[in-house]
Amino acid sequence: MPHVEPGMSVGLFGGSFNPPHQGHELVAEIALRRLGLDQLWWMVTPGNPLKNHDDLASLDERVALSRRMAPGPRVKVTAFEAAYKLHYTAQTLAFVKARNPGINFVWIMGADNLRHFHKWQNWRGIARTFPIAVIDRPGSTLAYLSSKMAKTFSHARIDEDDAAILPFLRAPAWTFIHGPRSSLSSSAIRNERATNKTAAS
Fold first, then answer.
1. What pLDDT band is residue 113 in, cutting at 50, 70 and 90?
2. Which residues contact 96 (CB under 8 A, 6 or more apart)?
3. Domain ranges in the chain?
4. Pfam families recorded for this chain (predicted)?
5. pTM
6. What is the 3-state secondary structure (H, E, C) of 127-171?
7. CATH superfamily of 9-200
8. Is pLDDT at 97 greater than 50 in this prediction?
9. How many CB atoms lie within 10 A of CB 84?
């Protein structure tokens, strides 16, 4: 787990990053800038329980690729969830909170995940552990209005113009941040690679 000092504001950006791409880099850059973060932990997970793992690259490979992609020294690429055998986001956030008193954490997610967030294990618990910043992604701009999470926690949403105070708020608190969007996705990249491999064989 990366080193932090009391009083820091830290974004938690988790995913399988299979593979990492410029869309992930853009989310990290927007979060750092709009939330005024001291650090962003780019957390490479062992695997997503809601996804098929047949085409999952090794953890070491995904960490190495993520380190090449990470935009600047404030982004700390880590895979501590594997070391501590943490399989669900709710577990991870509870673990991070217990180990790091005095740190202002924010959970960072792309808007494409917001649509299915209510299917995550203990999703309400996640929303009540740390504030959440949802970063816009292509095709998901309206998810902040229509998703079950958005409706359930509508009372806890703050305006994106106030995003810089989000790390200092008590959960539940969340905002939706609009900005530049990348059309890249990990699944599309994997599909293209598989198609090219088939065509070459």
1. confident
2. 1, 12, 105
3. 9-200
4. CTP_transf_like
5. 0.86
6. HHHCCEEEECCCCCCCHHHHCHHHHHCHHHECCHHHHHHHHHCCC
7. HUPs (3.40.50.620)
8. yes
9. 12
